[in-house]
Task: structure prediction
Amino acid sequence: MAVAVQMIVREVMDIRQASEYLGISGDTLYRYASEGFVPAFKLGNRWRFKKSLLDAWMDEKSGVRPASPVAVMPKQKKPVARAR
Result:
């Protein structure tokens, strides 16, 4: 019986973790980061990728629109009759 290994996805990933998350090679991701094609930043001399920014970038590139927040209006109180 095989043991299921759950991949832990961190908020800040290195190039190897991010390339696995995106399903592309590390070399391709390195080139994309160097060209500014994907959202990334350098920490020292190493590329780092925030999962939330990658998710937003993928949504934007795939044409998925984020759900707009629904405005909830508070209930208005009825006017009170004046005391006599």
Remarks:
- Confidence is low (pLDDT under 50) at residues 1-6.
